[in-house]
Amino acid sequence: MPSTTGLRVRPAAEADLTDLVRLRDDAARWMLARGVTGQWRPGELDEDHFRRVMAHGEVWLAEAGGRLAGAWELWWEDEDAWGPQPPVAGYAHRLMVDRTVTAPGTGRLLLDAAERRVAGAGRTRVRLDCHADAGYRVVGHKAGKPQPGGPPKSFTLMEKRLG
Q1: Cys-Cys with 75: which of 8, 57, 98, 160 at CB 3.0–4.6 Å?
Q2: CATH superfamily membership of 8-124
Q3: Residue 72 β-bridge partners
């Protein structure tokens, strides 16, 4: 995938697993430090989590100046949140940035890259199951979605039509 205004975006590999766990834990600590307690917790996800996602979906990394700047997961189905769906969407999960490396707005750039990847795969929608102010509209709610390494959580389901 081409550069996104100074970011180099690429698929994650086995060698990136430790960095992905660190990035996710750092993002969780950042949330907790700002009083966001209902989302992520450090230590919830390990290398096996990201390895499983890479086996059944995709994990993408963004690098800036040779350093890991952010990452996200891209799934091609998410029945736990959305139920059975026709293959029209990609599902963005765990969008995370390293705030010591990135500028404000980097998360939006990562979401733009995810949208391009989904469109490039011939799908017409990107769906999220979290709150976002990025042109996504609320299309439903899901209570009790199973979580890796923790209790079920409830989410707002969001979608953006591409093109």
Answers
A1: 57
A2: Gcn5-related N-acetyltransferase (GNAT) (3.40.630.30)
A3: 60
Q: Is 56 exposed, middle or buried (0-12, 13-18, 19+ CB in 10 A)?
A: exposed
153 phi, psi to nearest 5 deg: -130, 160
For residue 105, with 0-12 CB atoms within 10 Å meaning exposed, 13-18 middle and 19 or more buried, which class applies?
A: exposed
User: How does pLDDT run across 12-63, given as a tens digit for each residue?
Assistant: 999 999 999 999 999 999 989 988 777 889 999 999 999 999 999 999 999 9
The amino acid occupying position 74 is: L
What is the Cα Rg of the chain in Å?
15
Give CB contacts under 8 A, 24+ apart, made by 41-44. 41/150, 43/149, 44/147, 44/148, 44/149, 44/150
